[in-house]
Design brief:
Helix content is 87%, strand content 0%. By secondary structure, it is mainly α.
């Protein structure tokens, strides 16, 4: 900063004058003439061609990775979750059958309950599609497995409560008959 102030003080007379330095007009006119020269220079053509080539090559690489990435994802996902998916799906289907076997006083309650359980499948499908999109992400795989576990826990709790209700109603009926 001190050097800048020193330079300004030394050049004060030149900087304070209203007229530009000698030869300014000539240099300005030369720059204007160069700007108005509308010829396309070979150097500019090469620069444009190189830029287009780089863009096309990048697009080709990205598209080919996307296509091969999709194939890899489809191949890897079933291997990673096939066993867990089969296990949890069979467990969930067993719980649904147990719930269906219960006799409800109101069939509408049964329908609502089963419908709410089906709504959890939307989240499951979203997790599976996310896993297909990025099969290397263990967080998605863990979230899917955790979703299955939570759904089983909820269904076990429902079955437990239904069994309790059945037991209590049977006791009440037994007491009434006695």
């Amino acid at each position: 900063m001190i050097e800048l102030e020193k330079h300004i003080r030394e050049q004060r007379l030149l900087l304070d004058s209203d007229s530009p330095r000698e030869g300014h007009e000539k240099r300005f006119m030369q720059k204007l003439e160069r700007q108005h020269d509308n010829r396309i220079k070979p150097r500019h053509i090469l620069q444009i061609a190189a830029s287009v080539a780089i863009i096309l090559a990048s697009a080709f690489v990205i598209i080919s990775r996307e296509k091969s990435g999709g194939k890899v994802a489809r191949a890897e996902v079933p291997e990673k979750i096939m066993e867990a998916n089969i296990y949890y799906t069979s467990q969930i289907n067993d719980r649904v059958e147990q719930i269906n076997d219960f006799s409800f006083e109101n069939e509408e309650e049964k329908t609502v309950l089963l419908h709410e359980l089906k709504e959890h499948d939307i989240y499951q499908q979203q997790l599976i599609s996310d896993l297909k999109a990025s099969p290397e992400d263990d967080r998605i795989l863990n979230a899917l497995i955790r979703h299955y576990q939570i759904k089983l826990e909820v269904m076990d709790q429902i079955i437990y409560q239904l069994n309790q209700y059945r037991t209590e109603t049977s006791k009440i009926q037994d007491n009434e008959s006695v």
